[in-house]
Amino acid sequence: xxxxxxxxxxxIVERVEVVHNDIATDExxxxxxxxxxxxxxxxxxxxxxxxxxxxHKLSGTAFRKNYASVGYTYDETKNAFIAPKPYASxxxxxxxCLWESPVAYxxxxxxxxxxxxxxxxxxxx
Length: 125
Hints:
- By secondary structure, the chain is mainly beta.
- It has 1 helix and 11 strands; from the N terminus they run E-E-H-E-E-E-E-E-E-E-E-E.
- It has one helix at 27-38, and strands at 2-7, 13-19, 43-47, 51-52, 55-56, 73-75, 80-82, 91-93, 98-100, 112-115, 120-123.
């Protein structure tokens, strides 16, 4: 199955649709099918269910850095789907298009939660 993200004018993903591979023989065929189905000229981009952090889970080719979800942004320059920024202090990793904390997650075997006020990880007790 092929997955397609409908992109609003502000580059936010509005919905994700699944199109059978018999119809979506390539990206343009899937886009044309969805535009005809919804009788509009919306922007659609194919997305891969198996892509995360610019890596394909099944050893295939990574596609647009991350699988699109509603609320994600499509960055045309990076040709990537990017999740909403979780905290003001976090920065985007250009290779994975994932947000990263300015401080690495502790490697102590414990569970932590991000504290934006102190820009640090707090132990969950």
